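=== RUN LOG ===
request id: a7f3
mode: sequence -> structure
chains: 1
length: 255
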Amino acid sequence: MIRGMRQVYSDYTDEDQAVWKILFDRQMKQLSRMADESFLKAIDTIGFTDRIPDFDEVNVRLKETTGWKIRVVPGIIEEADFFKLLEKKEFPSSTWLRAMNSLDYLSEPDMFHDAFGHMPLLTNETFCSFFRQIGRLGVQYADVPEVLTCLGRLYWFTVEFGLIQRDDEDLKIYGAGILSSSGESTFSLSERPKRKAYDVFEVVRTDFDNTVIQELYFVINSFEEISNSLVELEPMLEEIATKIRGAIADPKLSL
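=== RESULT ===
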């Protein structure tokens, strides 16, 4: 487990602040008409502005709303650690920010993705319930790679690249990977990608490529839908785990 790391706010340079401001202003202008209302409200709730957020202040607001907190990490962490943090209502975030000459492309997520994309909805109780359930299942089935693959796909097509269309409303964005990307924000709502109604069983059987812009998005109608879908999914995950664990315990079963 990652321990002892913290955000040193005084280390951010003027260029860092300028980068955050450019990205924040650009996305807020776009997302005012593209993002789900829950995200726009959450931006206000969490108190984000065109200044780099102070995680100490963010944690105060999260404690007041949902009880979550931010855990500083160096970057991408081990899968097992990630699920453990979610189960404990902790979200892992890096503190490094992209450079001015890399505004639109990164090989791995930076703080703008982690903070702007993910943290606002950590003030939403229903979304947080779904998020924590993924963590719980990841811990419960940490020894079953096949189940973790299913959970990874679920996370990708919802938390990272999810779209939402509430009753009688236009299609909107709620996934962090889209919210934090100017190009994908525009692309995801255009006529170019393929979109499907959310079906948890189809989602966990659908592979993805994390090196390219997404060509398929799943559309939910509410955060309650994805939270409730985990109740439907869990028997299938348990069946997979039982077969895999049984085959390991008795190799003859895998013949």
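=== NOTES ===
The chain has one domain: 9-237.
Residues 42 and 120 are 5 Å apart (CA to CA).
=== END ===
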